[in-house]
Amino acid sequence: MHPNGIPSPAGACPDLQLRRFGGKTTAMGPLKDDLIEAVELALAGDWDAAHQLVQHHEDDATAAWIHAVLHKIEGDLGNARYWYRRADRLDHVADEPRAELATIRVELTTDGHR
């Protein structure tokens, strides 16, 4: 169970390790898979499913970035800016959402994931 009362995602590994580097969290294992899935769901237009996934990982910087993009797509720019600040990605506020999701996917699937 996540500290905020949200159940852990099905199949989540209880010994999942998160490492902090320069204020960023790098996901290891199932978390990274969930984030890639959230990006794919968002690109496919399944906003609700993508949003549910990232809400399970709100302490991860990349999850917060995806969360920001989802709220930008939704049109909730105030909430999007909140998540951009949490992700330390305010420089992406004006980016086109699909291109931004593609950038996130590249970071997640290469060594660029911070």
Short description:
The chain is mostly helical and 114 residues long. It has a single domain (25-109), classed as Tetratricopeptide repeat domain (Serine Threonine Protein Phosphatase 5, Tetratricopeptide repeat).
Fold and architecture overview:
By secondary structure, the chain is mainly alpha-helical. The chain has a single domain, classed as Tetratricopeptide repeat domain (Serine Threonine Protein Phosphatase 5, Tetratricopeptide repeat). 54% of the residues lie in helices and 7% in strands. It contains five helices and two strands. It has helices at residues 30-43, 47-55, 61-74, 77-87, 97-109; strands at residues 18-21, 24-27. The chain has a two-stranded antiparallel ribbon with strand order 1-2. Residues 1-27 have low confidence and may be disordered.
User: What average pLDDT do the residues reach?
Assistant: 80
The CATH superfamily name is Tetratricopeptide repeat domain
Low-pLDDT sequence parts: 1-27
Q: Percent of residues in beta strands?
A: 5-15%
Q: Give Rg in angstroms.
A: 13 Å
Global geometry:
globular
Strand order of the largest sheet: 1-2
CATH architecture assignment? Alpha Horseshoe
Q: Structural class, from secondary structure content? A: mainly alpha
Taking the alpha carbons of the first and last residues, their distance comes to 25 Å
The strand count comes to 2
CATH class: Mainly Alpha
What count of structural domains? 1
Please write the string of helix (H) and strand (E) elements.
Answer: EEHHHHH
Main sheet? 2 strands, antiparallel
CATH topology: Serine Threonine Protein Phosphatase 5, Tetratricopeptide repeat
The amount of helix comes to 40-55%
Number of helices: 5
